[in-house]
Amino acid sequence: MKQTASIISTYAADVSGVCSALYELGGMTVIHDPSGCNSTYNTHDEPRWYDQDSMVFISGLSEMEAIMGDDEKLIGDMVTAAQQLHPRFIALTGSPVPMIIGTDFSAIASVVQHRTGIPCFGFFTNGMHSYLSGAGMAFEAVAKHLVEPAAPGAPKEGVNLLGVTPLDFTVNGSVQSMRRWLGENGFAVKSCWAMGSSLEELTQAGSAAVNLVVSQSGWKAAQALRETFGTPFVVGTPIGSHAAVLAGLLRKAAQTGECFTSVSREMTGPAAIAVIGEGVYSASLAGALQQRLGKPVRVLCPLEVQPEFLAPQDAVAPDEDDLTLALADAAVVVADPLYRPICPSDSTFVPLPHEAFSGRIYRSEIPDLTDKQFDRWASNWFKEEKK
Amino acid sequence: MLKPAWDQFDESGAAVAIGQASFPSPFASGLEYGAPARGSWNIVHTGMLLPEAHQIFICASGCLRGVVLTAAEMNALDRFSTVAIRENNVLDGDMEELIIEGVTDVLHKLPKLPPAVLVYTSCIHHFMGCDLPRVYRVLRERFPQVAFTDCYMNPIMRKSGITPDELDRRQLYSLLEPRPIDPKSVNIIGGDLAIDSTSELCRLVKDAGFRLREITSCRSYAEYQEMAESFLNLYTIPAAKAAVVQLEHRLGQKYLYLPQCFGYDEIDQNQRRLAEALGTTAPDSAQARLAADAALARARDLIGNTPIAIDYTLTFRPLSLARLLAEHGFKVTQLFADSFIAEEKDDFDWLQQNLPNLKLGATTHVKRRMLPRQNGGVPCLALGQKAAYFTGTDYFVNVVEGGGMYGYDGIRRLAGLMAEAFLAPKDVKKLIQVKGLGCDCCL
User: Fold this and answer.
1) pTM for the complete prediction?
2) Where are the alpha helices (DSSP H) in chain A?
3) For residues A105 and B66, what is the distance between their CA atoms, to the nearest angstrom?
4) Chain A residue numbers touching B69 (CB-CB < 8 A)
5) Would you call B150 helix, strand, or coil by DSSP?
6) Which residue of B has its CA nearest to A197?
7) Which of A183, B159, B289, B331 is the most exposed place for a label (fewest CB within 10 A)?
8) Tell me, what's the pLDDT at B4?
């Protein structure tokens, strides 16, 4: 049955995506929720919580406030906290009950902004969509409202990395590897959305020559930056041989102003190898594996993804039943370990932990597959190489 | 990147000397911060105490995330399933069908039917007026061999009426079926951690010839059902009251509250009340008092004037503990709690009079996120995970929910743990982030 999961986990939700995207930017993010969202986020979805302070709070919504529609309590609490903590901006996100009672996040954000003089954004999250949706909204808001116009005549240079959160790239050095890879290919990193960059760096993102969208969560920001600043973008994650393709497309995009996706693949024949995960990353990994093994590799994406990122044999499979069915013929499955129970018993399972699915459980085992580091991982798990 | 800017924030609003504090809520409510101290149990941990039972949560995926990963970290996903609520379910009003068909689907997929299923509905069901009686009626008709109970993950209720914590503990015992009462059998109800068998409470029950049962020691569903035979339910935490009241109503089991406290007179009073309920005589406590005094004196001689910080996750009676330690010469300087239960009033008053500079610190206040996590540069001994985190010390007693310690025996053990903690630093970051201290954990 759709929507049931008898044994597998659940992806991080939209509300965590917002928090994760904005975590390092000096803002205050408020989750309008009774309790639970905060501990879920800071325990399972946020590896930076212990060591790096960020102003993420819950409203502590009560039954009576919900019944009486007492938005003033929330507004007052947000204003008080902002006066005490002086955040750079304020973000308000929602959970299921505010959705049911029809909370107007935009209106509340306007009131808070008016009372505090601090930019405030309302995000209509409800805990029923994935983290990609939430992070996407947050990055889009930054792109639309906080990025400053470039000085007239200033050269367009460098690249912005869009769609970078620990939910997809954890804290294992992958982000630094992507930065290094860009440097080795002649691109200065203008900003990284949003790990390791300040809000000031993000506000200068409009002067980049090209944007690199490394996960679905960067897609809307890329669209907004394209619309506002005309910046071209390339979609793909630099994994294995796929990284060289991506570097070429980045140069081409910067020169021509055209946009490209490097994640689509051509497959000949049925794929016996399946990769489960976030769309951009998985399609990039599938491309690298396909190139290395000379065999078709299929992506099963349980999350939101742009259709153009997927190849014809790939599939969107959001539920346990969809995935179980889609995996029936798989000989090899590359996926988070918490998917293992639904894989065919005679298949070979290649664990690829994903923070957005299994949280912190396998964090220390998440590999950095950036560029050539993919080859070491692949040689461990796939003995056979393309003849 | 956001850097700590501790010097920009003063403590006002997030800390107050007890001499100036109000009872039971010293701090104004507002936005809430959550510290990364996770040892206290949640509803999944508590539900797993029911042997052989399967848990099914029906919520939005954002709410499912925390509970499914709790189960995963316990290596217990084979006893745990979910049904995700989506927007169309809210709009279409088919919530009852979603639960019925979702639970049915899950049960059909299990290798064998469990004897009991805990079905957790959420805030959404509460607000949408979901017809839960119909849901459970249909499920019981479909699976007559399975005992279903209605559980709730509805934190929206944590500030009104019976709290989710109380409800969870009540429902855990709701599957006990009536049996002939055994007048020589007694239960301890509601705790997550077993009361130490060396405690005066356990020894008094057993020495008087009674069998003592506790869910923490049940190894099978059949063994759990034997708890229905007991004539008396003891409970040591206030959150268990709803459970014992319902058990009295359903099964005729009497109940007795014997709070986990630290005052000697209150401990003696508990012993007398227990003895009376069992029809026996309370043992003389003089030796136990002396032993507790001696243990505390040994710890005090070692710890000396080192400041001590306590938090509410170590015990639900932190003021009682602070008073005990202060009366025995320890230098208690900080106590972290956001509010207090009514039965702490006497200890609050005593501390106001006798230790007015004791600093009360809020744990959820927004400033707590940014305030310095160090004890003013002074080495400190922390009792509890949050106290350790907020004071930045590596020397702490890693105990939650009382840790099974009770009475004079508990005080002796706690004094020993304090001495041990004072001598050997711990890996705070690693230890306090483990959820449900005492449960299985794969981290």
Assistant:
1) 0.95
2) 14-22, 37-40, 63-68, 71-85, 96-100, 105-116, 131-145, 166-169, 174-184, 199-203, 219-229, 242-256, 279-293, 320-326, 355-358, 373-381
3) 24
4) 9, 40, 43-44, 358-359, 361
5) strand
6) B1
7) A183
8) 46
Determine the pLDDT at residue B3.
45
pLDDT tens profile A220-229: 999 999 999 9
Collect all residues of chain A within an 8 Å Cβ-Cβ radius of residue B110: 6
pLDDT in tens, A49-95: 999 999 999 999 999 999 998 999 999 999 999 999 999 999 999 99
Nearest C-alpha of chain B: how many angstroms from A375? 28
- Tokens, residue B329: 């010469």
Residue (of B261, B250, B255, B260) closest to B277 by Cα position = B255
**Which residue's structure tokens are 């992070």?**
A135
| Torsion angle defined by CA atoms of residues B301, B302, B303 and B305, in that order, rounded to the nearest 10 degrees | 50
Spatial separation of the C-alpha atoms in residues A226 and A233, rounded to whole Å? 8
Max CA-CA distance within chain A? 69
Separation in Å, CA of B110 to nearest CA in chain A: 8
- Comparing CB atoms, the residue among A52, A58, A338 nearest residue B32 is A58
Contacts of residue A18 in chain B, CB cutoff 8 Å? none
User: CA B339, CA B342: separation in Å to the nearest integer?
Assistant: 10
Q: Find the CB nearest B160 among A11, A54, A64.
A: A64
Backbone conformation region of residue B308, classed left if phi is above 0, alpha if psi is from -120 to 50, else beta = beta
Contact: A100, B90; criterion CB under 8 Å: yes
Tell me the CA end-to-end span of chain A in Å, nearest whole number.
42
> A179-230: per-residue pLDDT in tens?
999 999 999 999 999 999 999 999 999 999 999 999 999 999 999 999 999 9
Is the C-alpha dihedral spanning A118, A123, A126, A127 positive or negative? Answer: negative
pLDDT profile of chain B (443 residues), mean per 10: 54 96 97 96 96 97 96 96 95 93 97 97 91 97 98 86 90 97 97 96 97 97 98 97 98 98 97 97 96 98 98 98 98 98 97 98 96 85 98 97 97 98 97 94 88
Dig out the tokens for A150 from the structure.
Answer: 């470039």
CB-nearest to B369 from A23, A30, A55 is A55
Structure tokens given for B108: 């059909």
Q: What letter represents residue B321's amino acid?
A: L
Contacts of B81 in chain A (CB under 8 A): 4-7
Continuous segment of H or E residues that includes residue B133: helix B132-142
Share of chain A above pLDDT 90, in %: 91
Q: How far is B388 from B385, CA to CA, in rounded Å?
A: 5
B contacts of A98 (beta carbons < 8 Å)? none
Give the torsion sign (CA, A43, A46, A50, A54).
negative
Query: Is the torsion defined by CA of B157, B163, B169, B174 positive or negative?
Result: negative
Pairwise CB contact (< 8 Å): A42 & B36: yes
Nearest chain A residue to B99 by CA: give it. A4
Give residues with Cβ within 8 angstroms of A203, minimum separation 6. Answer: A146, A147, A148
A81 → closest Cβ in B30, B123, B128 = B30
CA distances from A142 to A45, A114, A136, A155, A162 (A): 21, 19, 10, 22, 11
Nearest chain B alpha carbon to A97: B124
